[in-house]
């Protein structure tokens, strides 16, 4: 991880096919399930409160809070 970068950008450096469109927290294309760890989201205009409660995050807005974070884009 580089300082200040989003989880999406970190993933894209290794996996060019990670899903995204707006990178602004609006479209929801980067929605991923947080399998383990904790993240902080800058903005969220896409996910419903229920989705957040169920463990979904927007990768383009997420920054890791824990040392290890595991995301699942296919869930
Ligand atoms: S890419 Fe649009 S919300 Fe993340």
UniProtKB/TrEMBL annotation:
Database matches in Pfam families: Fer2
CDD domains given in the database record: fer2
Cofactor: [2Fe-2S] cluster
Gene3D superfamilies, A to Z: 3.10.20.30
SUPFAM superfamilies: 2Fe-2S ferredoxin-like
PROSITE patterns found in the cross-reference section: 2FE2S_FER_1, 2FE2S_FER_2
Family: Belongs to the 2Fe2S plant-type ferredoxin family.
Protein name: 2Fe-2S ferredoxin-type domain-containing protein
Domain 2Fe-2S ferredoxin-type: 1-75
Keyword Iron-sulfur: yes
Keywords per UniProt: 2Fe-2S, Electron transport, Iron, Iron-sulfur, Metal-binding, Transport
Superkingdom of the source species: Bacteria
């Amino acid at each position: 991880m580089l300082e200040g970068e989003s989880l999406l950008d970190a993933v894209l450096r290794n996996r060019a096919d990670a899903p995204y469109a707006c990178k602004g927290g609006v479209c929801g294309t980067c929605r991923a399930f947080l399998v383990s760890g904790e993240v902080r989201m800058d903005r969220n205009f896409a996910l419903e409160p229920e989705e957040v409660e169920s463990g979904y995050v927007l990768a383009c807005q997420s920054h890791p809070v824990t040392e290890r974070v595991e995301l699942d884009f296919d869930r």
